[in-house]
Amino acid sequence: MKTPDLVKILSDQKEEFQRFSKRNLCARMEASQLSTESQLAQVVIGVRRSGKSTLCLKYFTDQKIVPAYVNFDDDRLASFKTADLDTLLEALYQLYGDFRYLFLDEIQNVEQWPLFVNRLLRQEIHIFLTGSNSKLLSGELATHLTGRHHKVELYPFSFSEYCTFRKVDTHSLSVKGQALRKAALMDYLTQGGFPELLNEKNRRGYIEGLLDNIIRNDITQRFRLRHVDVLYRMAAYLMDNFCQEFKADEVAKLFGITDHTAENYFHYLQEAFLLFSVRMFSFKSKNRIRNEKVYIVDPAFIAERNDTFQTENLGWRLENIVYIELLRRHRPNYADVFYFKEKDFECDFVVTQAGKVTELVQVAYDISNPKTRRRELNGLVKAANKLQCKSLTLVTLDNQEDVNLDGLNIHIVSASNWLIP
C-alpha cells in the first residue's frame, strides 16, 4: 500500500477514535491490569465484541494519553501485507509525530506482526494490542516476544458491569435494591453481557452474525478448514450441551469425523474464546487430560441462535456465569479452576493456586427441595475432606446463610450478591 492511502485511512480512524472517546464508557475491572509505564507489550485478548478496544480507549482517556492508533479490522486494510508495515510506520509518524504509545487493534489479521512489534519495543515505544484469538499468546508471542508481553483476558460484561450499565444499584441493602438486583440477574442469565447487544433490538441477528464472524474469520480462515458446516453444527451441539463433559469419540461419531478432528475443532472453538474447557481436578495428569467440561463465554450464545432448545435450564446458565466470573477473578492471579468428580458426588469448581486447593464452589439454582440441598452440601463436604479445603461456598439464586456440616462451615450466598465483588 502507498503512504498517502494509509495516511487517509489512519486519519479516518483517528477521528473515529476521538469521537468514541467522548462517549460515557463503562469502567471495566480489567483496566487495572494495564500499565502505561511497562516496557512489555500490553495484550488484551478475548472473544469478538467483548469490548477490548473500548477498554483500551477508556484507559487511554483516563490516563490522558493520545496514542497512535491502527484498527486492522477495517475493510480498507483487508489486503494489508507484512511488506506494508514499514509504510504503515511512516504514515503513523506523518499523522502523529514522534509518538510514544501505539495501539494496534485486532493485530492478528497481519502475518509476521510479532517481529514488527518486537522492533518497536526495542525502540521503547509502549505497545498496546488487542486480538480475538488466543493464538496471539500461545504461538506468535510465545515465539517472538518471550518475556516481553503482559496478557489481559477480557470477557463480556460481568454481572456487576451489567448492573452499572443498566444503572442498577449494586450495594443497596433495601428490599427494593435487592429485588432490582435479582431482576437484573434474571435478565443477565438470558441476555448475557455483550456490550453492544444490550441496546440491540435484533438480538438473534446480532448473535448469529457474531457467531458467523467467529467461525469464518477467527477459525475457518486461520486454520484453513474445508468442512465449515461440520464446525458450525459441532459448535451448536456443544453450546446446546454446555456444562457437560466433552467426549471426543461421541462427538466424532455424531458428526462422522475422526476423534482427532473432533478434538481439533473443539480446540479451535476455544482458541476463538467461544467455548472454554474445565479439566477435572486430579493429582494424576492423565485424568486431567482425559476429562473436561464445556462452558460458553456468554449466555447470549445459549438462546439467541437458530434451532436451539436450551432456553429454560437456568441452573446450567447460573453455573456457566459463575465459572466465567471465577476466571475473571482468579486468572489474573495465575490461579486455575477445575471441577471435581467421584462416583458418588461432584463439586462444580475447585480453585487452585500454586498447586494448592484454595476454594471450593458449588452452584445450585434452587435448594428449596431438601434432597437437592442435601446433595449439594454433601458434595462440598466430601470434596473438602478429599482436597483438604475449608473455604466452601454454595451459590444459589436466593439463599443467604451460613451452615455448619460435619464440622465444616459452608457459606450459602445468593448469586446476585456473590457476583458483585
Rounded to the nearest angstrom, the radius of gyration is: 23 Å
Strand/helix succession: HEHEHEHEHEHHHHHHEHEHHEEEHEEEH
Bin the strand percentage.
15-25%
Strand order of the largest sheet: 8-9-10-11-13-12
Q: Judging by the overall fold, what is the CATH architecture of the largest domain?
A: 3-Layer(aba) Sandwich
CATH C-level category of the largest domain: Alpha Beta
Distance between the termini: 48 Å
How many helix segments?
Answer: 16
CATH superfamily of the largest domain: P-loop containing nucleotide triphosphate hydrolases
How confident is the prediction overall: mean pLDDT?
A: 91
Helix content percent band: 40-55%
Domains counted in the coordinates: how many?
3
Shape: globular
Major β-sheet profile: 6 strands, mixed
CATH fold-level label of the largest domain: Rossmann fold
Poorly predicted segments: none
The total count of strands amounts to 13
Structural class: alpha/beta
Assembly type of the chains comes to single chain
Descriptive overview:
The chain is of the alpha/beta class. The protein has three domains: about 150 residues, Rossmann fold (3-Layer(aba) Sandwich), CATH 3.40.50.300; about 130 residues, no CATH class; about 100 residues, Trna Endonuclease, Chain: A, domain 1. The protein is about 45% helix and about 20% strand. It is built from 16 helices and 13 strands. The strands form three sheets. The protein has a six-stranded mixed sheet with strand order 8-9-10-11-13-12. Strands 2-3-4-1-5 form a five-stranded parallel sheet, with helices on both faces. The chain is globular, with a radius of gyration of 23 Å. The N and C termini lie far apart (about 50 Å).
